[in-house]
Recover the amino acids of this structure.
């Protein structure tokens, strides 16, 4: 009798925001980076991808992915690489144990949803590929560790490898040509330093900038300053950042975070033609953080920017009132502000900075450090293989 | 009988805009730079300082400077260094020839005026110190060459040393501790490549940024990328730029100009805390130049930015219609646009870029390469030593 069962597994996966940035590939096919990087995994209460992977001998046709309700093209080399790698690992298990169902031979049907609007302008590919890989690994019952799975996720989207862990996560660049040592590892779990918070100022950009994949290729090829970033600046920042996290030293964490963001965007601006992700609103957010720290008399906030104008501001729960108090008059009426947030309006921002932020920030996300992928019984695919209506 | 004559001499001096930027001092007292730089001297028809230097035994009190009608503080170390150096050179002449009047012992009275509004936000210190030094050198009848005088002007304001020459001018950083080899020399006179034009888009900045003197000190002290700029990027750019000028190769001139401006501003943004001179209007000007070159099918325009948001756009007279045609719809109604400029509206700019420029540019300056300081009989001080009413 043939196996007509629909096999299913679900996972969530988090977004991560780097404090030492990934920018530059030494191998574009394998997504091998020119430098190591380090990130904070953000809480899935606020930002997460939920993915159900399923397979069945009854499925006809090719593998498929439904992403936020829309069929998604999975023919790209990166997605294909993830499927291929995971199937190979399953096939090895099946070869070793004949009693296992031959899931590796069945078509995959995957359904994935984010709990945050695309309009937030957050790079969702990290959470997306991490969830995709973890869900299929769960479906296939692979024994691989998160670090081993991160090698697969990395081939989907570089920074996705860091979303296989919660807390504070390093992506070690490695030096092998096949990328087998270019993977994520845990610097510290969220429980080591649980009071880390993030306020994301979502800035409406007139137009989407250069994609990060093509942007980083251009930087590697044309920036005269890039070499010193990857050879000198980043290795120093990685060491400083790991120390800062291990010692829960926020002042050091903040300084390295801000310097590394500046360094990354400087190499973008040194690209030819130059790449600008930050705009005048982003720069006003930098000035606001500087003013908050100056008026607080100590470092209580740190800015960082990915490949876009949004400001991510890290701070500790104990300084929430000071940091949120400075921004509340400007953004508390936008989507995403959590009512009841403790605020203390001791910090006074310059008029021009305040009005630039007030006019330029369209919504906020208030979150903090969080856990890695979580297996869940919430399925986006029903037992009969059909997508769950939501 | 005592000498009661008022001795006078006048000169004009030009503004220069660097195409390989000066940013960083290795000796702040002597204004010795961390790298060589290269500039285009702009026409004095549009931008110049006129300075009359005078001295007389009948003058009482200290040296004085009237700048644009206002008494100016000359007690600063830099101005004092210029006065001291020039007096020493005069004193040496007087010691060698007893028949010379002892001008070095008389108080100096100096009057200086710019022919452009301070509101233009152009660094006037280069033209100002070049005119000051040249006027006193004329007054003292010093035999020093422009290159020798550039050593004096450099001590007033680094980039002033390049305004002692017309045309295309290099400031060689030198390596001596006393700065005696850190001086300007002529790469090519204006007549070598007379068709070079400059369109300056004057951008209204909300607030003056960090001064260049303190800014460059901070960059040297804190930017992790700066070392590679001065050790690798600038030496390469200097060599490429000199070749480009010698061969009148505008495409190469333009690429190095744009890359070097980007590199300079990148090291500013990599300073901690970061220094931003450019704003969204500046970046729109960059995108406009890129669009002009792309649509022209060849490089006809080059942007560069000093320590402020103004865009300086270099182009050749033969491409005036194309370059000016792209900007005319946006800025032809502002102060400074020269009616009758040949324009050809073949270039179409993106809506967002066009509106950002139209809203953000408050005036323009249309000029070109020009000559160095010119001795003149136009005096800002009358024969009796009083300032001329104008």
């Amino acid at each position: 009798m043939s196996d007509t069962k629909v096999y299913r597994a679900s996972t969530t996966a988090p977004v991560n925001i780097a404090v030492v940035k990934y920018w530059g590939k030494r191998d574009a096919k394998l997504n091998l980076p020119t430098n190591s990087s380090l990130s904070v995994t953000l809480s899935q209460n606020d930002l997460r991808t939920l993915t159900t992977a399923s397979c069945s001998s009854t499925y006809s046709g090719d593998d498929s992915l439904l992403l936020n309700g829309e069929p998604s093209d999975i023919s790209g080399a990166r997605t294909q690489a993830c499927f291929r790698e995971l199937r190979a690992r399953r096939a090895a298990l099946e070869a070793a144990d004949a009693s296992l169902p031959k899931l590796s031979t069945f078509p995959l049907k995957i359904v994935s949803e984010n709990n945050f609007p695309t309009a937030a302008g957050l790079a969702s590919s990290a959470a997306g590929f991490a969830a995709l890989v973890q869900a299929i690994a769960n479906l296939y019952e692979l024994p691989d560790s998160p670090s081993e799975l991160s090698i697969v996720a990395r081939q989907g989207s570089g920074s996705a490898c860091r979303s296989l862990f919660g807390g504070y996560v390093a992506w070690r660049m490695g030096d092998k040509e096949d990328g087998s040592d270019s993977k994520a590892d845990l610097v510290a779990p969220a429980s080591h330093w649980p009071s880390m918070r993030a306020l994301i100022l979502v800035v409406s950009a007139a137009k989407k900038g250069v994609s990060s994949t093509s942007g980083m290729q251009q930087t590697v090829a044309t920036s005269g300053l890039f070499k010193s970033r990857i050879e000198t600046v980043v290795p120093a920042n990685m060491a400083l950042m790991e120390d800062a996290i291990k010692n829960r030293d926020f002042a050091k964490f903040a300084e390295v975070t801000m310097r590394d963001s500046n360094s990354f965007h400087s190499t973008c601006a040194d690209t030819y033609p130059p790449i600008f992700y930050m705009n005048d609103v982003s720069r006003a957010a930098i000035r606001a953080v500087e003013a908050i720290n100056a008026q607080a008399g100590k470092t209580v906030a740190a800015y960082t920017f990915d490949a876009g104008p949004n400001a991510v501001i890290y701070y500790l729960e104990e300084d929430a009132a000071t940091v949120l108090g400075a921004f509340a008059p400007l953004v508390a009426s936008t989507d995403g502000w959590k009512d009841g947030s403790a605020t203390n309006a001791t910090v006074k921002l310059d008029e021009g900075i305040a009005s630039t932020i007030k006019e330029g920030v369209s919504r906020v996300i208030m979150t903090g450090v969080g856990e890695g992928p979580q297996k869940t019984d919430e399925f986006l695919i029903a037992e009969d293989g059909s997508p769950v209506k939501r």
About this structure: The first helix of chain B runs from residue 77 to 96. The interface with chain A takes residues 206-207, 223-225, 227-229, 232-233, 236, 255, 258-259, 262-263, 265-267, 269-274, 276, 279-280, 283, 286, 290, 352 of chain B (CB under 8 Å).
